[in-house]
Amino acid sequence: MKVQPGVSKSKKAQQKDPHMISSMGTMRIGPEFKSRISEHEGKILALATRSVVTLPPTATVMEAIKIMTEKRFRRIPITNAGTRRLEGVVTSVDIIDFLGGGRKNLLVENRFKGNLLAAINEEVRQIMETNIPYLNDQADFKDAVSMMIERKRGGLPIVNNDMQVVAIFTERNAIELMGGIVTSRTVDEYMTKNVKMVSTETPIGQAAKVMVDNWLRRLPVVKDGIFAGIITSTDIVHFLGRGDAFSKLTTGNIHEALDQPVGSIVSKELIWTEPGTDLGKAMEIMLEKKIGSLPILENGLIRGIITERDFLRSLNEPGK
After folding, report:
1. Could you give the CA distance from residue 317 to residue 310 in angstroms, rounded to a whole number?
2. Is the domain defined by 187-315 classed in CATH 3.10.580.10?
3. Where does 41-178 sit in CATH, by number?
4. DSSP code of 278?
5. Domain CBS: where (predicted)?
6. CA distance linking residue 140 with residue 214, whole number of Å
7. Domains 41-178 and 187-315 share a fold
8. Which residues of 171-184 are buried (b: 16+ CB within 10 A; e: fewer)?
9. Where is pLDDT greater, at 314 or 49?
10. Is 247 a residue whose pLDDT tops 50?
11. Would you list the domain boundaries of the chain?
């Protein structure tokens, strides 16, 4: 199909003439979808991100928030300060869970009585995940993709024989292989159709809870039923890391910040595509725009959403 570039600037424009953002470059026909995967078997380190930032368990939650904000990371491996051995991982979802989204928030409510400034100075070891999957530096590409799907992880630390972190392999690393290749498969085959959404008036804290309760990293945002953007766990972390949350405080209680509406932090640039878009083209759009998901719109209404994890599923299907 031919993809027309465009930007939706307003609700009115979107209702009458919904356009999709696309790559301005020419789609690379290149090798076959399956062939591109087979080229990289056994080369996990060649595909992974080698410049890994780690933190010790004694680092504060605020330090993790600042690094995620500055580096635009979703996850940070936690390593022993002396041996540099992997001890855990903290993600953007762990942080929103801690600050209001889920069970980890009990620590904030019980120990810190909801005080945001006190909570963010807690040690990151209190919220990091310790039962984490990881890859050996000799891992195979296909095994890495299978593990990420099975364990529902967006990234895996890669360690050497001494359990020291040498790289990290993410969903983004995987789909960089495929962006722009014609796959002969459409987004309709892999998108999630029963999409959980929030409105522009939904409190940030409530959106965070929906994410944590449903193992989601992002939610489409609607206004009067019309697509208005995407909010991600990373957006909420950046809201905290930039200091925006603290400007909303008068008593110091975290709920003052998280009661702000989702519409106050959602991106104003609307990036989406339509049913029938080739999977490779959708990946190319996401890579170009540096986003982790792409809503599928028809007549201004959300029909589904496709994410980096959905692309992993397409890579992992036997016989394809």
Report:
1. 11
2. yes
3. 3.10.580.10
4. B
5. 48-105, 128-189, 191-246, 266-320
6. 30
7. yes
8. bbbbbebbbbbebe
9. 49
10. yes
11. 41-178, 187-315
